[in-house]
Fold this sequence. Notes:
The chain is an alpha+beta fold. The protein is built from eight helices and four strands; from the N terminus they run αββββααααααα. The relative contact order is 0.10.
Amino acid sequence: MLPGRGQDGRAARVARILGTRTAWSPVGDGEFFCPGCGGDRNYQRLTGHRRFTLLGVPVLPRGETAPVVECAACRRHFGTDVLDHPTTTRFSAMLRDAVHTVALAVLAAGGTCARPALEAAAVTVRAAGFDDCTEEQLNALVEALAADTGRVFSEPCGAGLAIELHEALDPLAPHLAPAGRESILLQGARIALADGPYTPAERDVLATVGAALTICAEDVTRLLAAAARTPS
């Protein structure tokens, strides 16, 4: 007999006689981004109760397990923190709304009379997913925003506009790679530069965008300077 074979055999026999089993109970469901499948899938949220087993029969409770999320497609289990990540559909909507909000903020800071800025903003917003966006629609939205809030064009980023930017960008930032966060800031910079150099109000808005995207102030300054040196 090989060394250790007897011990291994006894351990295997004990494992067949005594063990633990987890009984799962569904407590909710929905849609999530499955890390295993790499796409949006349905899920069940499960709670588990462990029991000692004797010859495969549950005999004694051993306590509860942490809740898990089970993918309906691949059946893999994940921690519930996986639900903090947006689905692909939700992420696309968050990104589209963020770009739209940044475009409106930059236009409001620079004024809406400049046709090049409106055209650049409309192209950017359409590329983000608002396929039917026009310069006229953006102009009307910024004018309505000014009328509703009493905001004066070309003034620094006020509290109300800063709150709107943070509401659109704060939930998105943790799910973007650094290059993605910089891309949103640079899209706003190109809109501001479409009709000439940055105004102080435009710089203020773009600094707020950078802060909401968790880009440090030094990197914001560097990125805005690089955008200003790049021919449009």
